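Why do we care about 3D structure at all? Because function follows from shape, and shape follows, mostly, from sequence. That is the central idea of this module. The next example makes it concrete: a single protein chain, its amino acid sequence, and then its structure expressed as C-alpha cells.
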Amino acid sequence: MMVYVLSKDDTGAVTWPGGWSILIEMTQNSCYLGIGYKRAASEPANYTWNFSSIWRDSCIVTYSGVSTAATNPFDPDAAPTPTTGSSAPGSITSPSITTATIETTLLAIYHHVAISGWGGQPSGWTGRQGSAGGGVNDEECIDDQTQASAGTFSGANQSFGSSIGGWKAVTIALQSQPDDQHYFPPPAFPGVFNLDARRMI
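And the structure:
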C-alpha cells in the first residue's frame, strides 16, 4: 500500500495521476495538504502530480500487510478530520483516533509552512519523512507507530523550530490483513510493516 502526501504553500488545484484514491484534500490557512493512496501492482517508473506552486514537498511511504478486504485500507473507513492553525508555539499535536481493528499502524502526518526544522520523533513513534530547510519553505513530517489493540489513541506531539504560516496535522490508521476480525478463535495478524519512505520533491 502506497500512501502519498503532498504539501504546498498555496491553495491551487492539484491534478492527481490515474489510479490514486484521494483521502484528504484541504486548503485551510492558505496552504494545501493532500493525502492519497494506491495499492501497488504493476507500477510505472514515476508519477506526475500537476499543479502550479513555488514551494512544495511530497513523499510516498509504502507498507506491506495492509488489508485487501476493506473498501479502503483505513480504520475507521471514514476520512479522518485534520486539525489546522495559522501559527504554533514550537510543536503540533496530531488528532486522536479511535480504531475498531487490531494491529493497525498509525500515521501522524504534519504540514507546516516555513519552519526551521523538525525536532526528534515523539516517544514510541518512528520517523519516516521530515523535510525542512534548504530553501524549501513548505515542509512535512510523517511518523508511524503500530498498535496491537483497538481503541482510542492520543495523537503524537511533533516539535519543530521557529515558524511562520499555516499548519495542518492528521492521524490515519492502516488496517492489518485480514480485515474481518469476527473469527473464533481469532486468527494471527501479521501486522503492517513500513517498506519505504521516499521524498519526491
